[in-house]
Design goal:
It contains 5 helices and no strands. The protein is mostly helical. The mean pLDDT is about 85. The protein has helices at about 1-25, 40, 45-80, 85-90, 90-105.
């Protein structure tokens, strides 16, 4: 199991590094590096670029909940461990409070 996890992490690292370095090289046109808004770096015309813009926005839109859900679950587990009486008494308030804090601090 450990070897499989190590292999998966190594493959993911390779894919992320390859994508990030090639994107940086493709959009870095001057000494300042790429533009701060990656969407504005794409050309304005052409079906592949319009599709790439749409898919990038789709990725950002749906990756946010996938990243915040495990964070909220981890914080909820920590609260359950540290203060079990409070967690049993106010589960909905803790859930809503953690959701609000995650949205506030990650905005």
């Amino acid at each position: 199991f450990t070897r499989i996890m190590t292999l998966c992490i190594a493959i993911s690292l390779f894919i992320y590094l390859t994508f990030s370095l090639t994107s940086y090289a493709a959009f870095s046109t001057d000494d300042n590096g790429p533009a701060s808004n990656i969407i504005s770096s794409y050309p304005k015309t052409g079906a592949p670029f319009i599709l790439a813009r749409f898919l990038y926005v789709f990725l950002v839109l749906f990756s946010y909940p996938l990243q915040t859900f495990p964070g909220r679950t981890s914080f909820t587990s920590l609260i359950n461990y540290a203060c079990p009486q409070m967690a049993a008494r106010f589960p909905r308030a803790i859930y809503n409070g953690l959701t609000a804090l995650l949205l506030l601090f990650t905005w």
